[in-house]
Amino acid sequence: MSDGSLTGSHRSLVTGHWSRLSRLAALAVALFFFPWQGGAQNPGEFLLDFSESELRMILQHGPWPPPASRDPSNRASGNAVAIAFGEKLFFEPRLSAKGSIACGTCHVPERGWTDRRKLGVGLVEVDRNTPTVQNVRTHRWFGWDGSSDNLWSQSIRPLLDGREMGMTERQVAEVVRNDADLACRYEKAFGTRPPADDEAVLVGVGKALAAFQETLVSGRTPFDAFRDALEKGDLKAAARYPQDAQKGLRIFAGRGNCSLCHFGPNFTHGEFHEIGIPVFKKAGGVDWGRYEGIKRLRANRFNLLGSFNDDPARADGTSTRHVALVPQTFEQFKVPTLRNIALTAPYMHNGHLSTLPDVVRHYSEIDPTLLHMAHLYFDPLVPEAVPTDTLLKPLKLTSIEISYVVAFLMTLTDSETGKPRKPLPAAACR
Amino acid sequence: MRIALKICTLLMGAIMALSAAAQYCVADLAGGRKVESERYVLSYRTKPEKVAVSQHFAVEMAVCPKAGQPAPEGVRVDGFMPEHNHGMNYKAVVKPAGGGRYDAAGLMFHMPGRWDFIFEVRAAGKTDRMTATLMLQ
Q1: Which ranges constitute the DSSP H helices of A72-179?
Q2: What's the CA gap between B24 and A406, in Å, rounded?
């Protein structure tokens, strides 16, 4: 127990030992000896005695936001004119076959850049849930199956998908060429009028869309304030983080093993796992996830190994060169970010789980024998058993523990994203 | 004269063979770690030196046959998480760099925790397997 006057001594205890003990060890010692348990003198203040390993896991979830960086594969990346062009295109319904659907129809800003539907709806309903486009600059793979290795390629995909926006290359190019404002913006972004080559215009549209989406970075959250306070050794500030959230964080970063996959500042290591969500499509058949995604990636002329990559060194192509197409990738889907997770229900690749308590309960009660099983029955090409990932085991959380984890997840939400977005600037390009 | 020439040729051949063997046996890579099997000593180091979660890295290897053992015909490196029973999502490509050295590119350990490097050296119809553990945080 302590009062406000002890804050300084806490801080000096932590910082004074920096040179002799590791920073984390010193912080863990400080937390152990001076637990903040609230009480009459410290209403609303509480700080768990996180261990050194728990602190290590907590601190790796920041700092946030990450430093801005350009995408070397996209010459429009970071270019303010291209970003404005991309924003205009993102909300342009003429980029769909019926003139009724824009990127922003499914990626709705006020809904965490998702649509809050179980399955996305373009020209028709599709097989997967609409993921957020916030924080996409930090990704290595795009889409639930990672079939794109760059954001501009991923931005082209729905334009040409018959179920989503249903356009052809020619139609996309003509929308830009035939509209004075869009053609002007194209020229300012890329230095030439939209050329006669439809494919070149399409790629330009994808790169402008990507340049815009790179700017969609979620804001700081209560968790970020807590994490940074711990890093600074400011225990009084850290003690303002809600008690239930701290208890949930301890499960998340500890025995829940959630941080192993939801790793890093964006709460995803960017790779793929099978987590026991049904993979049968509503219209029939099985969604093979990453396995098909790798095949599509390799066949994609817009991948980072191709000629549309603006980086002649293809330095970002390492993952695409080395990714392994193996049976374990069946039914794997990308580990999503958890930032602003409270705004993006329902959850999982097919919206199978409606609420955050449902998600936590799924991991609490998961049946490991159901993992990596479906293909044994449905794909005769892979008759042998696939090695089973043994990470996922039922956590057997109590209902109060589930509520703690949910309380923690709620603190990953910023205060800005859900608000109405400013309208697009009306000024025409000259 | 002819006999002397033959002896000289044989001697030079022997010296070259010995020097080649000596080259193979320089299995020390600065800052590297060593593992060994019945037939080989393998030294390795990662580039960058500190492996980061979910970031690609490369591995330099130097393979040294023990006395009387054949030169390696092929070298492989892989990664595995024994506590999770899964490996990497990427396939490393190994290229010989000369003098018993090999460069592997494209590795990635995508989760924190215990990872085992698995090295395989193939020669004369047999494969030697060596492992080394890395605790990744």
Answers
A1: 80-90, 103-106, 151-160, 169-177
A2: 57
The tokens describing A30, both together, are: 């400080």
Query: Each residue of A150-178: pLDDT tens digit?
Result: 999 999 999 999 999 999 999 999 999 99
Domain ranges of chain A: 6-65+223-241+248-261, 80-213
What is the value of ipTM here, to two decimals? 0.89
Nearest to A322 among B54, B91, B111 (CB): B91
**Contact predicate A332/A271, CB 8 Å:** no
Contact yes or no for A271 and B110 at CB 8 A? yes
Structurally, how many domains does chain B consist of? 1
Q: Is A388 on the interface with B (CB under 8 A)?
A: yes
Cβ of A322 within 8 Å of Cβ of B53? The answer is no
Nearest-CA distance A35 → chain B (Å): 26
CATH 1.10.10.10 fits A80-213, yes or no: no
- Tens digit of each residue's pLDDT (9 = 90 or more) over A200-245: 999 999 999 999 999 999 999 999 999 999 999 999 999 999 999 9
CB contact under 8 A, B106 and A321: yes
Interface touch A271/B56, C-beta < 8 Å: no
